[in-house]
Amino acid sequence: MSASRTSRDRTRLALGLIWLWVCIFVAARPASASEDFRVSGFATFGAVTTNDSNASLFRTGIGTPSRDGVDLGVDSIVGIQINRRISHGTDLTAQVIVREDQARHVEPRLAWAFARFTPISNLELRLGRMRSPFFMYSDSIWINYANIWIRPPMEVYGLNPFTDLDGADFIWRAEFGRVDVEVRPFAGRSLLLLPRRKAKLNRVLGLNLTTHFEDWSIFVGHGESPFELQWGDDIFTNLNAALRRSPFAGVAADLSGRDGYARFDAIGAQWDEATYLFSAEYARRAANRYIPSAHGWHVTLARRFGNVAPYVMFARQIEDQAVTDADLSAIPPLQAGLDAFLESRNTAQKSATLGLRWDIHRHVALKIEWTHAHLDSGAWGSFSQVGDNGFISLGGRRMNVFGIALDLSF
């Protein structure tokens, strides 16, 4: 892609985000007086770059890798949320977001659209589109202002990039002394757009348990589903064509298709008091094909000094099982193609992050981050190859990532 084309894409992104943010303020002002109709919004204007000209930070299912240094699409987002009470115990919620997608388009999309029914005070039923509740911070995954970091740790949150759930959930809350408990079973399906193709969770079933005790919150979750994953990138396309012409054609069925099954588990804890914030989360993905099985964790500690909060985060992801263990060494070019495919799907890495959050207004926060990541051997980690110079191995590289973001909320 030419530099002028990339520049135009980024200009469209910036103008689109600014335009919608202005619309949010205009729409919200007259609505704020109504108890039955509420409008809220959020936005992040972010930029990120790496020190490696061959690699760009990549968030699966969110945007496309930058091709010339600074990427405005990784973190930038604008959202508006509308809540409308229909009657006692019934309300509607809609959330629209605008951000760069995997086709480099900047267009509105519906992130939330559900009806909530509250037959009794401690029980809710929601039907429609909502956030996929796979992680401790799933509900705030787009609302960066609510989080200490610029973006959630990718070693953990990259394990399951599905963000939408079209279906239903129950939320039951109870108090046991000083402990608040929330039980949330959920079911539905989810769609994830990938470059040129898509992935689906066809029948999601899961259960979450969250407890609150004084300054502590504990989260435990499990979900599983049959899934489809249709790769369409050049690395897969070339390998798939070569496999179909070889004696190893059966291997192609393990790389892409409609017959996968995945299980996902997560556990997290947060301690948040006036001065300190501590959070930690562990997640594990087990898949029978198409993607590696892997697990990851992060630990974050922040210290508040008035409206300034420096923080440090350590994170790690480890591949447990590759997509396939097929041996194609009898045909060296075919083995090389398979190795390239496996490396590009392996997101294992470890990282250390230093960051600073400055709340310059009660609805505005400026964040600056530096991350040093070490990719595992035979892994691309949270990065993607830049350019069209053929396959370049990123395994074992050390990356420095610099980010700055302005978060807003009202």
Outline the fold blueprint:
Layout: H1 3-31, E1 37-50, E2 55-57, E3 77-87, E4 90-100, E5 106-120, E6 123-131, H2 154-157, E7 164-176, E8 179-194, E9 197-213, E10 216-229, H3 234-244, E11 257-272, E12 276-287, E13 293-303, E14 308-321, H4 332-345, E15 349-361, E16 364-375, E17 383-385, E18 398-409
Describe this protein's structure.
This protein is mainly beta and 410 residues long. It has a single domain, classed as Porin (Beta Barrel), CATH 2.40.160. It is 14% helix and 53% strand. The strands form two sheets. Strands 1-3-4-5-6-7-8-9-10-11-12-13-14-15-16-18 form a 16-stranded antiparallel barrel. A hairpin with a 5-residue loop joins strand 12 and strand 13. Helix 3 packs antiparallel against helix 4. The N terminus is likely disordered.
Q: Write down the domain tally.
A: 1
- Write down the oligomeric state: single chain
* Unreliable segments of 5+ consecutive residues: 1-5, 24-33
CATH superfamily: Porin
Largest sheet: 16 strands, antiparallel, barrel
Radius of gyration: 22 Å
Mean pLDDT: 89
Tell me what the CATH architecture is: Beta Barrel
Number of continuous helical runs: 4
Tell me the number of strands. Answer: 18
Structural class, from helix and strand content?
A: mainly beta
CATH topology: Porin
Strand content: over 45%
Series of secondary-structure elements, N-terminal to C-terminal: HEEEEEEHEEEEHEEEEHEEEE
CATH class: Mainly Beta
Kindly report the spatial arrangement of strands forming the biggest sheet.
1-3-4-5-6-7-8-9-10-11-12-13-14-15-16-18
Name the helicity range.
10-25%
Give the overall shape: globular
N-end to C-end Cα span:
37 Å
